[in-house]
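Morning. Coffee machine broken again, so started the prediction first thing and wrote up yesterday's gels while waiting. Chain of 181 residues, entered below exactly as on the submission form.
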Amino acid sequence: MEIRKRKPIGKKNIKYIEELYAEYSKRLFFIARKYVENEDFAEDVVQSAFAKVLANPDGILKVPRDEVFYFLSTVLKHEAYDIIQEEKDNEHESLVYDDGTEGDFIEDPRDNYLQMIDLDSLKYNLSRMKRRHRDTLLFRYVYGLKCKEIADIFKISERTVKIRCSEARVQLKKMMEEDEL
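Came back before lunch.
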């Protein structure tokens, strides 16, 4: 995969975007808070929107000054929706009980064969797997990365990531079933 090279932004353009941040960030924060309903996420959305503007400054440099706020609020709206969608995609079951203690077992509602998982057994079985399978599983299900992101990290195709995940799940299921016998 070839990484696209960008030309340097330039000090003048960075200064302009910094001025825009100073002028509009507070107003954009209140807009973002309406979308995500959480102050921490709202700040992340504002930061992410300006990071996107900084990564592609040509867009904002072409916008007339009186329309900049509209442009930024549109970028912000898209970033908010992306962050909300990413949060939904990366939701996972908590390993902590209501009283604050950590459990030795977790329930996996999506797989009938895994009603209760012994965490020590899971760690042991993961350590027995091939490194590429183990790493792919951990990046996908523990760290919540998408297949495309994993493919970029390992410099392999997205299809290979999906195949590795599938093979690793089958292998892990077999190991876990053997432990119960």
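Confidence is low (pLDDT under 50) at residues 104-110. Going to sketch it on the whiteboard this afternoon.
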